[in-house]
Amino acid sequence: MRTKTNPLYYILFIAFFAILLPAGYLSGFLSVNTISVWGRYFCFAIAALGIDLIWGYTGILSMCQAFFFCLGSYGIAMHLLLKKTVAAGAVLPDFMAWNKIETLPFFWQPFHSFGWSLVLCLLIPALFAFVVGFVLFRSRIKGVYMAIITQALTLAMWLIFLRNETNLGGTNGLTDFNTILGYNLSSSSVKLGLYMISFAVLCAAYFACYYITHSKFGKVLQAIRDSESRISYAAYKVVDYKLAVFVVAALLAAVGGMLYLPQTGIITPGRMDVKASVEMVMWVALGGRGNLKGAVLGALLVNFLYSICTSLFPDSWLFILGFLFVITVLYFDKGFMGLVESIRQRLANTRFKTPQTTL
Amino acid sequence: MKISLSFQQVGSGTNGKQTGIPPARELLQNRYTHAAKAMAGLLLLCTLLLLQQVAAAQDSATIYTTQVLSPSHDSVRTQAIGRLAALRIPATFPLLMAINDKKLYLLDHKAVTIDAKPTGEGTYRLYTLYPDNKLLTNSSGQPLLLPLSALQTVDIPRGDRLQLADIAPLLNLFSNDAQKRILAYSQLKNTGDTATLRILQAALAKESNADALRTGKDVLYAARLYSAGNATNAKAYIDSIGDNWSDNAPVLLRNYAKNNAFDKEVASYAAAKAVSLEKRYDQLQRVQNFFSGLSLGSILILIALGLSIVYGLAGIINMAHGEFLMIGAYTTYCTQLLFTNVLGIPQTDLFFLAALPISFVVAGAMGLVLERLVIRHLYAKPLESLLATWGVSLILIQTARLLFGDLTAVKTPQLLSGGWQVSPHLTLPYNRIFIIVLTLLMVLFTYLMLYRSRLGLQIRAVTQNRQMSACLGIETRRVAAITFFIGSGLAGLAGCAITLIGNVVPDMGQTYIVDSFLVVVTGGVGKLAGTIFSGLGIGFFTKISESFFQAVYGKVFILVFIMLFMQYKPKGLFPDKGRIAED
């Protein structure tokens, strides 16, 4: 990191989301929905951390993070749906019965158990990322080619998830869950709990990424970003490093997805279409890539802006987003954090600013 | 219903000769000769009587027809129509049809009827009704066109028309409209009634439309097949059904083999025929797939050409390229509106001809604007340009949605509707042929531009080494701008072409953009030949894998294939020779 971060900002950030917002809810100022919405943003921020690792630090533009995010969500969704089905005394979830399927498909079986679900939610994206990454990195596909191929991959997976034969709910996705581990999902205390868990995981993920980027491993990643040929001439196995960070990023996206599902109560293939995957990258670009704080702030801000804009002027959200894309790329190469940085340098004398939470 | 004496005798006559039915190929000959031959062995006298009766029926038809057209009294007309309905003489059916449809007119005291739809000028083509049913022509042999005002309408009261209700399905066999006739034929399926078949035969004898003829023959042969008296005849009919080869034929033969076959041998014969028909159908289907692969590939090439050149030249990944396609399509739509609503040129194909260059120029101009505002700041920064142009594409899509709404369609020019019918089950649509030809022309144009012009030389030079070209006095920015114009224009042209085969929707570009990027990646950046090969390859592959798997899995399959392909050729099909250090 170029500048020493003042620990005060971390404390302010944590205090705001871990104490102020829950306190606001408990004292009745905020509705439980606001809490839940912010909980979802945290999940996006977790995925954004992964994107920052792979794109901001390693320079690989991966457009299939949205797909990994959905893999995590779908895994938890399958578990919740099975629990609900069993509780209702049925064998098959409703949508399968409508599709005239007689037995539970084999890949649904392990999701009866919560433990297995957690394991598979992490294992499947990791394995997928490993295989795809291995094939792509081995043939030295990088830069734009990598972006296009991963994008096409996301598109293909999106098309597969849209189908009814894959037994994943088709266009409608998976929805209508009631309990998780016996707790009622619609109760507000469970929502608050999930919010707190998401925030805790976000903080943990942030510090893990902070550790990674400041370790020797992280330095190699940045070296790969800056000059891949030179680091490979220096006898570093570039493929292994790339593969490792790709898997880590996929895992982070999956974790985000796993936490996201119980808070929204629905997952559809729409979360992983081309648009969604580019948008995820854009959170990081807007927040400031190569900067973990930027990734978190970008995800939180864009999504916050999204919920404000879509309720105030729904038609113009795409305009706003589009202009944000263009202007960020053209003028704020370092994103929001870079902007803050340059402002701070200009106003070097005035120190009392709280840039994190205001825009 | 009244049934006249003469009709009953003709009916019994035909029933009597059931065993002597000739093979279907000759069936359309005069049935009276056959009837007479069959009867000859039994009773010569009876035959003579029969022929007399037929002649009498024709005479009475003439009398009744005259009575319908110029009745001495209303009740006479009512009675005449009733008689005609009961007689069921095929020659009178066009007249009855005209009565039933309320389209009976007099022209010079002759009964005529009109087409279902008027021509552009509000005139109609005319057909005589009795004794023969023909298109009226003027002295130079062209169809005679007259407005309704030149005709004298004959009003037949509803009560009279109701007498035709029983034979209404049969009347449609004599309609002027081929679609109606096809429907009427197919409604006669499973009929075993000899009298109906007689009329069907008469209708087929004067059938002019190939599709209608096929449907009608199918029904006729099927009926004959089911009543065939011996194995030889049955096989002959099975052959006829096979030669006729309607859509329904395999199902029909299979049902026959399963339920009503004459004996085991005939059943297996029918089943084998059905299988061979289906096999031939599959082969034609493959040709059809090949053809649609070709046209899909053409569209991909049109889009990817621009993308590939621009990426090679300026290092720009233009995610908004698909939106130039959309702009081209909307330009075509606007040209259509301009021509029909503002300039008031109705029903012509002119607008499409005009739309081709206009959509090229408009999309190209938008490309120039985009280049000036956004792209020129991002040269040689592909990833940044990818994100920025994605933002641009969001803006363009939303603008189109606000301006035009969600769904609009361009009318296909009449010249390009329909298709080239190679065989009954293989039609190559003209619009797809047009797209292929257009692509050929554009590829040729691009080739000439790139390899035979000064601009092309400059473009290739800048693609190879930007700084060096600049040193040698090439205005690299101007070259890039012109290239961007041409690339966007080609996408606009593709959009114009796509209006022929699909709707115009704001996010239409998105459906093609990922595919065309795959074309660029597989073909190699900035390579004309690579783009063409990989465009065609991906087009074919998509369509062919669609016929094996479902469309979706075909797409996944292609992707896996490309990923494996890139293991061998990471720089595309035609990589640059030589060693270039990367950083």
Automatic annotation (TrEMBL), chain A:
Q: Write down the membrane topology.
A: Multi-pass membrane protein
Q: Which CDD domains match?
A: TM_PBP1_LivM_like (cd06581)
Q: Which UniProt keywords apply?
A: Cell membrane, Membrane, Transmembrane, Transmembrane helix
Membrane-crossing residue ranges in chain numbering: 7-26, 38-57, 64-82, 114-137, 144-162, 192-212, 243-261, 281-305, 312-332
Q: Give the main localization category.
A: membrane
Q: Name one Pfam family in it.
A: BPD_transp_2
Is the keyword Transmembrane helix assigned to this protein? yes
Instruction: Please give one Gene Ontology molecular function term for this protein.
Output: branched-chain amino acid transmembrane transporter activity
Name a single GO cellular component: plasma membrane
| Lineage: superkingdom | Bacteria
* This protein's record includes keyword Transmembrane helix: yes
Protein localization? Cell membrane
| PANTHER family assigned to the protein according to its UniProt record, in alphabetical order | HIGH-AFFINITY BRANCHED-CHAIN AMINO ACID TRANSPORT SYSTEM PERMEASE, SLR1201 PROTEIN
What is the protein's given name?
Answer: Amino acid/amide ABC transporter membrane protein 2, HAAT family
Organism source for this protein?
A: Chitinophaga arvensicola
Q: What is the lineage of its organism?
A: Bacteria, Pseudomonadati, Bacteroidota, Chitinophagia, Chitinophagales
TrEMBL record, chain B:
User: Which InterPro entries does its entry note?
Assistant: ABC_transp_permease, ABC_UrtB_bac, BCAA_transport_permease
Q: What stretch or stretches form a coiled coil here?
A: none
Q: Which GO terms describe its biological process?
A: amino acid transport
Q: Name one Pfam family in it.
A: BPD_transp_2
Task: Report the membrane topology from the UniProt record.
Answer: Multi-pass membrane protein
| Annotated region described as Disordered, given as residue ranges | 1-22
Which Gene Ontology molecular function entries are recorded, alphabetically?
transmembrane transporter activity
- State the superkingdom: Bacteria
Q: Where are the transmembrane segments?
A: 290-317, 324-345, 351-375, 387-410, 430-450, 479-505, 517-541, 548-568
List UniProt keywords, sorted A-Z.
Answer: Amino-acid transport, Cell membrane, Membrane, Transmembrane, Transmembrane helix, Transport
Give the location in the cell: Cell membrane
Similarity-based family? Belongs to the binding-protein-dependent transport system permease family. LivHM subfamily.
What is the protein name given in its UniProt record?
Amino acid/amide ABC transporter membrane protein 1, HAAT family
Organism of origin: Chitinophaga arvensicola
